Amino acid sequence: LRISSSRFSRSSSSFFNLSAAFCLLSTSRFSSSLCLRMYSSSFFLIFNNEKISDEDESIRKQQESLSSDKEADPEQIQEQTTFHLPSFRDYQNRTYITPPSYLRATEHTCYVPKKVIHTYKGHKNGTTNIQLFPKYGHILLSSGIDGTIKIWDVYNERRLIRTINAHKQFIRGINFSGDGKQFLSCSYDRFIKLWDTETGVCISRFSNKRIPYCAQFHTLENNTGGEKEFLVGGSDRKISQWDISSNKIVQTYEDHLGAVNSIAYIDQGRRFVSSSDDKSLRIWEYGISVVIKLISDPSMWSVPVLKTSVDGKYVLGQSMDNNVYVWNAKERFGQEKSKTYRGHLVSGYACGLAQSPDGEFLASG
Hints:
There is one protein chain. The protein is mainly beta and 365 residues long. Helices cover 4% and strands 43% of the residues. It is built from 1 helix and 29 strands. The strands form 7 sheets. A 5-stranded antiparallel β-sheet has the order 5-10-9-8-7, with no helix packed on it. The longest helix is centred in the N-terminal third of the chain and has 14 residues, at 53-66. Mean pLDDT is 81; it is low at 8-59 and 65-70.
């Protein structure tokens, strides 16, 4: 784990993944999130990545075999959800997605975490992603290699709230809506699923018979929820724009020469950046399948993780050459060469990225 001073700006949260146990670290008042996730008030999350390299290698081989040009019918399971708390509502008739009354989504100063204060255990084999509830961070969403999704309590007794038997295979990504009432999951079983956070019920299933590598709600300008569309990057080298109500692809973005690994929105959702195994970044106008700008260079490596900075002015990218790069997302989309973070020795493996809500620190791991 490396934490650098980023000094970008002020605002809300961030995220990433890896392994069967993850820890909560205390700080004077850090914030937001990361697979590594910093969240509001006084905690910091990080994944333990012990003894997972063999599993990663087998998953890579499985991915390569499944990414062939042959279209296979996706395998679906019967989703099941288990609620683990004694009662669904408290004495004020509130459910667990209601933020505690003492939490405020306000700006505050963040600090580097100092010690582990809790470890969450529950997934078999490994944990692939974590994400905190938007703005408040009072519940934690995690996904695993075992195809399950778990919801955890963060501030009180830190208990497991709900387990969802969601997918038949490894879950590649999860993504909360702006208000946290729904979330997306995508898996190697070739399904993207839309879930209700409160009940754990699967609302809709989406599939184009290709492996989805990332799924991101189309972020609205005020980011208050009610998203009607989402983007999916997949093994077919395309980005698909899905309409939730009709369960249909309404736009396809085609230009990448390899699988699409990550998507990050910029300019308040009017544009987005995509990264691919073809070692390039492409900037698109949302809804128009024409590349605005191509960033490609013979010296570039693949960038498997993209993240928009908390103020929306920058895009952060973890490169396979052990560096974290920063691009200016305003006007001309160009690299900020003075803001390059070095130190990891994990070439060939993806690292997670997260910023503290005040924009002061950047964490990777």
